[in-house]
Specification:
rod-shaped; 2 domains; mainly alpha; 4 helices
Amino acid sequence: MTIRNVPDETYKGLQEMARANHRSLQEQVRLMLTEEVELRNPSVCEQAAAYRAHLSGRNPAKTVIEDLREDRSR
């Protein structure tokens, strides 16, 4: 991958970050890109919260009871 027209200040800042973290410039940029992409993916907690919201308002016990009654009435 090649990135063109990176402003000088940005490039210098990336170099400083890499040096401070004892990484090469390439390693630093790769890590930053990877972390940015991972931030876009929902965390396990966010996925669980979405699933709970999806299930809210449902009464699973009522459904089980209705299913049992239906089976017994056959």
